[in-house]
Write a structure and sequence with these properties.
Layout: H1 5-8, E1 9-13, E2 18-20, E3 28-29, H2 32-35, H3 46-56, H4 65-68, E4 98-102, E5 110-111, H5 120-126, H6 135-154, E6 158-160, E7 165-167, E8 171-176, H7 184-197, E9 203-209, H8 215-228, E10 233-239, H9 244-250, E11 251-252, H10 256-266, E12 272-279, H11 287-297, E13 308-315, H12 333-342, H13 347-359, H14 366-378, H15 382-385
Parallel strand pairs: 1-4, 4-8, 8-9, 9-10, 10-12, 12-13
Antiparallel strand pairs: 1-2, 2-3, 5-11, 6-7
Length: about 400
């Protein structure tokens, strides 16, 4: 079996100076020899080539660490059936269609289930020193990324064996944080790569954002979108799973009125919006209310090919806010399923909720009690707005 992520996905972590091809893979620390490869630095480095050979031989590379240990083997990305033909051309074909740029940890929100590893707001709260990215090193990476985009622009068509036809893979650049709209380097990087990206086949730029950004920086982001909109498809992943005060409690630092203002504006500018729900112990009982709210406020249609919005799903599975700790009796599961079906929400969303339903009910333990006590101390309103929380 072949997992397609090893061929299609690339994650560039500017803060950690690392590269990997899946969130469950052991990262590779870039070195001088890698930089000498130019545009081939991201796919053609020795370790990645060996991993591909190992997988094509029918074995799982040790770098696929979580799957190697058996944790995620049932979640392999097998969606491209032509990958399963063990085609020897995979060694030579360029099928990259998703490049993540992990920009850093600058963020103005300290979400209850996040931490100092991904938020400067958390660092400030915990008194941890904030270390900026190395700008010179970042510039070197972007130099090679521009060479890589030019390779993608000029690459040959590949065969999609499931359809028995030639096609040009599209390419998407995903900007991750922290909060990308707050970082000055975000716009410097975009100014450099967008002229090259727009020459590629069906180019896409996606942003993962909390939409808490102030007016001045939001205008800068919107100006970038508007001046490139004719050549590039823009998508927003909006991190949210609660509304109003509940949203502000779960995402400490969120200003609900500013969020609503920004959401109203971006609907007229970007091509697609995805509400990225991180389901957790606090929010799960109110998911039906959240779905109703989304359909009330969104002017864009749901689920069409272009100019659309949708849901994507994640879940907290460790720490005090793990969905495993949810008392199933505190969640109106039938109402959630009925609401999803009424709005004809994609089946994947319902399946995700059903998986959470099945795994919920773990007995509270020390991790849960200690963590929830810390959260209540941080914001006592939790017991008022989330009455199912019991210590």
């Amino acid at each position: 079996m072949i997992c397609s992520k090893l061929w299609t996905d690339t994650n560039i972590n500017l803060k950690a100076r690392q590269i990997k091809h899946c969130c469950k893979q052991t990262p590779h620390e870039l070195n001088h020899q890698d930089f000498a490869l130019g545009g081939d630095m991201f796919e053609g480095y020795k370790r990645n080539k060996q991993n591909k050979l190992t997988m094509l031989s029918g074995n799982l590379p040790e770098d696929c660490s979580a799957c190697y240990d058996g944790m995620f083997r049932n979640a392999w990305n097998l969606w491209q059936s032509d990958f399963q033909k063990n085609n020897p051309n995979l060694l030579h074909e360029d099928r990259t269609d998703f490049i993540e740029i992990d920009l850093g940890d600058q963020c103005d929100i300290a979400c209850t289930y996040c931490g100092s590893w991904n938020s400067t707001a958390w660092k400030k709260e915990k008194g941890i020193k904030i270390v900026p990215n190395d700008s010179a090193w970042t510039d070197k990476v972007i130099d090679n990324l521009i060479l890589r985009l030019n390779q993608i622009r000029d690459r040959n068509e590949v065969t999609h064996y499931a359809r028995d036809e030639e096609y040009d893979p599209h390419v998407e650049i995903a900007m991750l944080g922290g909060e990308p709209t707050l970082m000055p380097q975000t716009y410097r990087i975009l100014d450099r790569i967008l002229p090259h990206l727009k020459e590629c086949e069906r180019p896409v730029v996606s942003f993962s954002t909390n939409l808490n950004t102030g007016d001045k920086l939001m205008k800068r982001f919107l100006n970038t979108v508007e001046r490139t909109h004719n050549n590039i498809e823009w998508r927003l992943g909006v991190s949210l799973e609660n509304t109003g005060t509940r949203a502000e409690i779960v995402r400490t630092g969120l200003r609900w009125e500013q969020f609503l203002k920004n959401l109203d504006i971006v609907q007229d500018v970007v091509d697609r919006i995805y509400f990225c729900n991180t389901h957790n112990y606090l929010s799960m009982p109110y998911f039906a209310d959240f779905v109703n709210w989304c359909f009330d406020v969104m002017r864009m249609p749901y689920g069409t090919e272009r100019s659309t919005w949708k849901f994507t799903n994640n879940a907290v599975t460790s720490g005090a806010l793990s969905v495993d700790y949810i008392d199933p009796d505190t969640v109106p599961w039938d109402t959630i399923y009925k609401t999803l079906q009424e709005y004809k929400v994609d089946k994947e969303v319902e399946e995700h909720i059903r998986n959470i339903h099945k795994r919920s009910g773990r007995a509270p333990d020390t991790i849960f009690r200690t963590g929830v006590q810390q959260l209540i101390k941080r914001d006592p309103r939790i017991t008022e707005y989330f009455p199912h929380v019991k210590i």
